[in-house]
Structure formats: structure tokens, C-alpha cells
């Protein structure tokens, strides 16, 4: 009975660089869900997310020789992912974000009216996040939706930690201002 230890990400990368391109499929298998989930939170269309995920892995494969083993492969691939999506969106000039629907355990027990209100709030928040500039939107999504730390986000997007903290802070302020103005607009419509 042998205990085969799985290869590390860097060992797989070295195998690829030594001429075995099939080894890369193991990295794709390990990170496809992470890459896809990040992309899906940044674009609305699932087909577009699939296409972008494939492009990310092609870009990563072509740039394996630029990977530095002192950094986690997950950080490197996430940085490629966010940069690629931002570039693709710039080219397309179509700024959208897909946020998960609220998945509270007790939502099904709520009254139909309360469920409707919760659904409307989620849609409002989604619209507001969609309108944020990418410089704020990406860190907010990575922090609040992906659960990444400030440092992980800084490493991924290649910005200083202080800038990431600042962008999340300012992004929250923009979200808050938009939510407040939206609520004031609703109150005005009632009268």
C-alpha cells in the first residue's frame, strides 16, 4: 500500500514547463471553480463567464514561465482572472456584476411580502454594485463575496494594502450614498 502525495502546484508547473502540457489539466481541475466563481460575480452571463474562464486558463498556461513560486498559484491565477475580466469589460464597455441571491436558511419561512421585499433589496444592491467603477467594485466583490483578506486582494490585484483598504472603504461609502439616495427617492414617490 503506497501513499502517493499529490503534486504541489509548483511541481505541476515545472512538469508543464519541462514539456508535458497535459499536466496543466490538474491545475485547471484544482482552480476552475475558484476562477469561474470570481468571473461569475463580475459578469452576468454564464456563457460569457465560461468563455472568460477558458481564456484565463489559456493566458495562465501561456505565461507559466512568468509564475514565481514564492507566491501561491491561487493568488497568481486570481490576479490573472480579475485583470482579464476587467480588460474584457473595458473592451466591451458593458459593466455588470452578478451577485448571489440571498441564501438565508429562514427565507422560505418568510411571508410572500417579506420575500418580495428581500428580493427587491437584493436586486437594488446588485444594480448599485453594477454601477460602481471597477477600481471599487473588484475589491468589494473579492472581499464581501469571495471572503478574501485585504492582503490577499492586494496581492491579487497588484496594489498596496493601503490602497485596497481605501478602495473598499470608498466603495462602501459610494454604496451607502446610493442606497440612501435610492431610499429618499422612494419616500418622495410615496407623497
Defining traits:
70% helix; disordered C terminus; Rna Polymerase Sigma Factor, Chain: A; 191 residues; mainly alpha; 8 helices; Arc Repressor Mutant, subunit A; 2 domains
Describe this structure in words.
This protein is mainly α. The protein is built from 8 helices and no strands. It folds into 2 domains: 7-95, Rna Polymerase Sigma Factor, Chain: A; 103-191, Arc Repressor Mutant, subunit A (Orthogonal Bundle), CATH 1.10.10.10. 70% of the residues lie in helices and 0% in strands. The chain starts with 8 loop residues before the first helix and ends with a helix. Mean pLDDT is 79; it is low at 94-107 and 187-191.
Q: Helical region count? A: 8
What characteristic shape results from the CA principal axes? Answer: elongated
Distance between the termini: 77 Å
Under CATH, the topology of the largest domain can be stated as Rna Polymerase Sigma Factor, Chain: A
**Can you identify the CATH class of the largest domain?**
Mainly Alpha
The count of strands amounts to 0
Task: Give a quick account of the main beta sheet: strands, pairing sense, barrel closure.
Answer: none
Mean pLDDT: 79
Unreliable stretches, pLDDT < 50, 5 or more residues? 94-107, 187-191
**Fourth-level CATH superfamily of the largest domain:** RNA polymerase sigma factor, region 2, helix turn helix motif
